[in-house]
Amino acid sequence: MTTRSAVLTTSPGRYEILTLDQDPPRRNEVRVRMHAAGVCHSDDHFASGDQSPGILPIVGGHEGAGVIEAVGPYTSGYAVGDHVVFSFLPVCGRCKWCSIGLQNLCNLGQHLGTGTRFEDPGTFRLSHAGTPVGQLAGLGTFSEHVVVSTSSVVKIAGSIPFTSACLTGCSVGTGWGASVNSAEVKAGDVVIVMGIGGIGINAVQGALHAGASAVIAVDPVAFKREAATKIGATDTYADISDAADRARALTDGQGADAALVTVGVTTGKNIGDALNAVRKGGTCVAVGLGKSHVDEGDIDLHQLILHQKRLQGSLFGASSPLADIPRQLDLYQRGYLQLDELVTRSYCLEDINNAFDDMKAGLNLRGVIVFD
């Protein structure tokens, strides 16, 4: 069959809408009709050239939800009509990392940026004029139909709106988990979140759920600071220096217990500023991507070492997707996690470049491609 998809043919480049040939699902694969796909800065990193895709052409998109319309042979546990969300990190359930509860570090993830099949590297399910086409994160959710590995599929209740459900496949787990898992926020903590986009707004929610007494949101865009206040942030500032001063005022001069860097394009300066804002023994969590190699920015080594601070990377918020996605959707259904409010604008597939332009202009918490 064929499917219409948003494809990068060059990097740097812009997404093009192409009609691709799509193979049927094989064993342990399903074909999903897409209903919603989140527009994440990570997808733009491949378009901007900050990150290099393993193959071109490649279909973008790694955050999505839809309905299974075909199941590969000898594939149990899935049925036509199942509603599903994708985890952009696959889970094999067998490797060392999966077995010790660190599903976000599953060995299958080594092929994340290659566009190939996780379990069968070097093979593809899409082509254009006979040329193989990759799927970002093994998904390529900017497509009307996707054939994906069941290692990336999480079944969900049919009552959950696709536009809200799709967010749990990346932005919710990454931001919420960065606070709850990576920063290990505790009751009474003072937390700074730098960058209030799709990731940062969920880091605010995660810190609040973990019991933080103060959550200080930082973003130069007034709309995003207002959105953070509505979610529950106790303070908002346009600049990290003001946020750091507020954290010190709340802690007898010590600084924040944790600072999370959730900006769209992370720089060395962002990391240095956040590290300086935390107290002795505090934690700076680096969440947002940037260039593969940071060549500027200052980290105060005396503070890092002599103040025993912790600089922590965070991949998908250190989540275990098979457990955490259902947990977050349960919180949503019970009214404890806001998702509907995070979708600022919806776009059709043809408007995908406008969606990225709006994201970079700071107009959205999360833009979502809607296929219905």
Q: What does this molecule look like?
A:
With 372 residues, the protein is of the alpha/beta class. It has eleven helices and 18 strands. The protein folds into two domains: 2-156 and 339-370, Quinone Oxidoreductase, Chain A, domain 1 (Alpha-Beta Complex); 175-314, Rossmann fold. The chain has helices at 41-48, 96-99, 162-165, 171-182, 200-209, 222-231, 240-250, 268-277, 301-306, 321-333, 352-360; strands at residues 2-8, 16-22, 29-39, 58-59, 64-71, 83-86, 126-128, 131-135, 145-149, 153-156, 190-194, 214-218, 235-237, 256-261, 278-286, 310-313, 343-347, 366-370. Strands 3, 5, 6, 9, 10, 17 and 18 form a seven-stranded mixed β-sheet that branches. Helix 11 (352-360) links the parallel strand 17 (343-347) and strand 18. The model has no long low-confidence stretch (mean pLDDT 93).
The counted number of beta strands is 18
- Oligomeric description of these chains: single chain
**Arithmetic mean pLDDT:** 93
Structural class: alpha/beta
Order of helices and strands: EEEHEEEHEEEEHHEHEHEHEHEHEHEHE
**So how many helices?**
11
- Form type: globular
User: What is the total domain count?
Assistant: 2
Are there runs of 5+ residues with pLDDT below 50, and where?
none
Rg over alpha carbons:
20 Å
CATH superfamily of the largest domain: Medium-chain alcohol dehydrogenases, catalytic domain
Binned strand content: 25-35%
* CATH architectural grouping of the largest domain: Alpha-Beta Complex
CATH structural fold name of the largest domain:
Quinone Oxidoreductase, Chain A, domain 1
